[in-house]
Amino acid sequence: MKDGGAGAARRARVTDPVARHHGMDWLRIGAFAILILYHIGMVYVPWGFHVKSPSGADWTTIPMLAVNAWRLGLLFVVSGYASRALLERSSSIASFTGNRTLRLILPLLFGVIVIVPPQPWVELVTKFGYPQGYWHFWTTDYFRFGKLFGLVLPTWNHLWFIVYLWVYTLLLALIVLLPGGGRAQRLFDLAMSLGGGMGVVLIPLGWLLCVHVLWFPFRGETHALFDDYIAHLMYLPGFMFGFALARSGQAMAGIRRWWPVTAAVAALAYGFKVYAELAWPGDMPVPDAFIAPYAAAHATQQWCAIVAMIGIAERFWNRDHPIRPMLTEAVFPFYLIHQTIIIVAIFWLVPLALPGWAEFLATVAVTVAGCWLFYGVGRTLPWLRPLIGLRRKRPHLPMPRPVAAV
User: Fold this and answer.
1) Which of 145, 175, 119, 172 is nearest to 336 (CA)?
2) What is the mean pLDDT of residues 116-131?
3) How far is residue 37's CA from residue 39's CA, in Å, rounded to a whole number?
4) pLDDT tens digit sequence for 329-358
5) pLDDT value at position 284?
6) Residue 381: φ, ψ to 5°
7) d(C-alpha 223, C-alpha 221), whole Å
8) Residue 196: is its pLDDT beyond 90?
9) Is the dihedral of CA 181, 186, 187, 188 positive or negative?
């Protein structure tokens, strides 16, 4: 049977690790874009957030539930995947750990000191009637290392992701130092290949069902590191899964085979959650008999959507584009600044009493423009680059002058 050039190209993309890297890069870019839109949605959805708009509505929970379950888990999976490449490019475990610490902790400290403070100030002003201006708040109240109107200050707010990623990186480095790393990878490959590749779906899904249904039903995350058991039970295994996936042909083959099925299952689980939201809207309590099925639907949507997204990236996004390197570099600065821009933008926009749709579009536009401005300015200033998670620019050395023959 003849095989055309298109089929050969598809097979090349499947087996080429560089192409696979591009697909996961696009997935990482898309995951952060979804996260930014999700945080804008948090202004309007009837869930807790730092600032709320009077234009919020109950119906906004429906689109938010489409990504609520899996958006963060996907970020940790792709971060683990990227960590494998970073580790293999490093000269040693110590070099890898030191580089990751520098690239994560410097932006975290800069974020806690400079980027995040407008968020609790707006929250205090809008929710508790805090009477002082921002400068007084930052110089007098923010660094109190205590509570003000119930808010713990200083805070890392959305930058909790960086803290968790750094801690998971340290744990990864310790695990890599242990003997038997090759055997662990082979065991992972074997487990993921069970049932014609269904292991990549059923084993992580079984774990998440235990987390959400048996151990912590309807338990929320705290993002406070030390008491956030449910988050660690989800995100640390996801991070390690991504790390192992980066060198597992068996796991990726299972994802390529089963992602259409998992996409359909994730959609069904989402539909079940929408039904529950419509049946018991707002603060109406869910019947006890419905808690376990809802938690199971949440876990199912969570993992099946992640597998589907990886499969889509592997199937359709395994190609490069001139803009990819810049977007790959920009996502971390975007992540650092986006939530502060959203909260301050809403603080300024609400008094204008715009229609809800106009306020939402204005918030999206201001957030995107502000993120690009932050990244564009930050990347041009050598002293600022490490503080927003970018590598230091290497100096351009002059070309050596040719030596005349003697």
Assistant:
1) 119
2) 98
3) 5
4) 999 999 999 999 999 999 999 999 999 999
5) 83
6) -105, 110
7) 6
8) yes
9) positive
**C-alpha dist (Å) from residue 330 to 25, 32, 40, 67, 364:** 12, 10, 19, 22, 17
Phi and psi dihedrals of 164, rounded to 5?
-65, -40
| 394 band by pLDDT with thresholds 50, 70 and 90 | low
Q: pLDDT per residue over 210-261, tens digit each?
A: 999 999 998 999 999 999 999 999 999 999 999 999 999 999 999 999 999 9
Nearest-angstrom CA–CA distance, 121 and 127: 10
Cα of first residue to Cα of last residue in the chain, in angstroms, is 65
Q: How far apart are CA 274 and CA 268, in angstroms?
A: 10
Give the C-alpha separation, 378 to 65, whole Å: 34
Please give the backbone phi and psi of residue 5, each rounded to the nearest 5 degrees, phi first: -65, -35
CA triplet 205, 206, 207: central angle to 5 degrees?
90
d(CA 166, CA 160): 10
- pTM score of the predicted model: 0.91
Question: For 394-402, which contacts have Cβ atoms below 8 Å and span 24 or more sequence positions?
Answer: none
Cβ-proximal residues to 96 (8 Å cutoff; 6+ apart), any chain: 86, 87, 90, 173
